[in-house]
């Protein structure tokens, strides 16, 4: 008795799985073979022959049509830093045909990889991702994506296409150098949830303290940032280094907590103790004394990213990446002495 032929037709995803590459790579082997290495293209085509895969030209034509969606993938929506990015992105998209779709991967590289795959299946007009710490598979998908990609927050990343951000190590170093210039000598560092950007700020602190011949005084926690945690970190720092006379913190939540702890202990700011935060949240300038910090333009990161994607939506990627450094500004206020 003869066997019936299987009616199952292999799909592009079957080819990708069997070849050990992404579906985007398989698609590029047919549509843009010059963008795929010879070795990968050979492996994919061998799998195509083995499985009997036949590309669907109608589906390919449909898949090549981009939507008007711009994907915005962020590690948090509870953090005011990223809410400013969202605000800028939505403001720029308002009144255009484009719509912003947000994905929150909660600092999980694997969740970010999953979201990138989902977003790319929707043929977006462009994608915005935070930083350059994606998984290898996610990075490959972004490099091969048939749309423009913007990496925001940092400038010192391995660029994929467009980069808009700032140099966190340099900004932190400038803040610590400013504390030294204002007469503080025993400067500590407080940090929470030490992600890549916080590590860069810590590196800036270490560089300047090392160059000055000072002693590193560091208190960090893997927990999410909060004012309560900032107060606890300063208390821990004082327990180990009671003569500390200033702190630079990895963000404003931690700086606010340190500020409140100083008030609780009746420590005079800026005379006896200095504090500098990072990001410049709105509340800080309203305190008395107002809190010194490093200002970063998160709103513009979101706004300019969408602006670039709208302008370049139908253009091919150039050979080199374009990097826009938005810079930073140290806001010297009431918690630090005059220089």
Task: Describe what you observe in this structure.
The protein has 339 residues and is α/β, with parallel strands linked by helices. The chain has helices at 12-19, 23-31, 38-51, 57-63, 80-93, 109-121, 136-144, 168-181, 196-212, 227-240, 252-264, 298-312; strands at residues 69-74, 99-104, 126-130, 148-154, 162-166, 187-192, 218-221, 246-249, 274-276, 293-295, 322-325, 329-331. It has three domains: 12-63, lambda repressor-like DNA-binding domains (434 Repressor (Amino-terminal Domain)); 69-166 and 299-326, Rossmann fold; 168-297, 3-Layer(aba) Sandwich (Rossmann fold). The protein has a six-stranded parallel beta sheet, with helices on both faces. 42% of the residues are buried. Residues 1-6 have low confidence and may be disordered.
């Amino acid at each position: 008795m003869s066997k019936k032929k299987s009616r199952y037709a292999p799909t592009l995803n079957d080819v990708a799985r069997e070849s050990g590459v992404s579906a985007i790579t398989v698609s590029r082997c047919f549509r843009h073979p010059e963008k795929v290495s010879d070795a990968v293209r050979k492996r994919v085509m061998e799998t195509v022959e083995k499985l009997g895969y036949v590309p669907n030209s109608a589906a390919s034509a449909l898949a090549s049509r981009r939507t008007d969606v711009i994907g915005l993938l962020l590690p948090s929506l509870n953090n005011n830093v990223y809410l400013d990015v969202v605000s800028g992105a939505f403001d720029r998209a308002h009144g255009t045909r484009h719509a912003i779709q947000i994905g929150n991967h909660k600092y999980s590289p694997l969740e970010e990889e999953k979201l990138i795959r989902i977003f790319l299946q929707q043929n977006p007009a462009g994608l915005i991702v935070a930083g350059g710490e994606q998984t290898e598979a996610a990075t490959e998908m972004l490099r091969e994506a048939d749309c423009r990609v913007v990496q925001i927050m940092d400038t010192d990343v391995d660029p994929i296409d467009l980069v808009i951000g700032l140099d966190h190590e340099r900004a932190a170093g400038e803040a610590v150098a400013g504390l030294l210039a204002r007469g503080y000598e025993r400067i500590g560092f407080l940090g929470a949830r030490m992600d890549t950007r916080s590590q860069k700020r810590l590196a800036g602190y270490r560089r300047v303290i090392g160059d000055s011949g000072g002693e590193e005084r560091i208190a960090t926690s893997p927990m999410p940032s909060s004012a309560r945690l900032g107060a606890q970190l300063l208390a821990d720092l004082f327990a180990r280094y009671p003569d500390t006379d200033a702190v630079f913190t990895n963000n404003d939540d931690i700086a606010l907590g340190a500020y409140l702890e100083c008030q609780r202990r009746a420590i005079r700011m800026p005379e006896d103790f200095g504090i500098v935060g990072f990001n410049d949240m709105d509340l800080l300038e309203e305190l008395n004394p107002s809190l010194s910090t490093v200002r970063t333009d998160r709103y513009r990161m979101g706004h300019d990213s969408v602006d670039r994607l709208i302008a370049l939506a139908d253009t091919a990627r150039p050979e080199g990446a374009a990097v826009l450094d938005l810079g930073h500004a140290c806001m010297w206020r009431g918690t630090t002495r005059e220089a």
